[in-house]
Amino acid sequence: MSKIIMKVRGLSKSFGKRQIFADVDFEVKEGEKLGIIGYSGCGKTTLLRILGGFEKADSGKVVIAKKRIKKPTKKAIMVFQDFAQLLPWRTVLDNVVWPMMITGVEKDKQKAIKIAKKYLSEMGLSDATFEMYPVQLSGGMKQRVAMARALAMRPKMLLMDEPFGALDNLTRRKMQEITRAACDKHKISAVLVTHSVKEAVMMCDRILVFCAKSKYKIIESDENAKRRIREMLKI
Description:
Layout: E1 4-15, E2 18-29, E3 33-37, H1 44-51, E4 59-64, E5 67-68, E6 76-79, H2 92-103, H3 109-122, H4 139-152, E7 157-161, H5 169-186, E8 189-193, H6 197-203, E9 206-210, E10 216-220, H7 225-233
Parallel strand pairs: 3-8, 3-9, 6-7, 7-8
Antiparallel strand pairs: 1-2, 1-4, 4-5, 9-10
Helix pairs in contact: 2-3, 2-4, 3-4, 4-5
């Protein structure tokens, strides 16, 4: 029986008089991937930022690996859509090694380098790219480095905010496949925010769908999931 990695209880959030969502409850098991989908402005990214400790909810709580989340933590690492999330003055390898060193995930530099190379290779990057700088990389390659950096931190939870949204279709599909495979291999749980119904179904085990009037429903990602989501969103 898989253990529960994340517990979300009674999360509510408003901006001024506008309620974004209310009383959101769900759990994520070890190795499970949960998708979050809905209309623009429905609160997907806001919810993800609350899960990561970057933003505060009006009420409710988030617990990851038995620790209540009130600020960013090594237990939950976030990956963004923006290609500029890498440090431009550091090489590809250093972009993965440096976070491990400063956070104490790995204090031995040689071990950190070995770990970084392993995850960069898992993301499909060759040794020739390790000493390159972000400015020399394509968008897809930058996202591979960002994903390797996140996985190298060995988090309990990977939080992804449209990480493949700006990629071309072929690169996007490849990144979906290798990211899911890496999470499966290392038993890392994940929450994925996406606008793509197809991506949510392909990558996730369950999907939280934000419907009208701040309501939501969680469904299983099965062969009928696309149809059910489109019916709920009327698309």
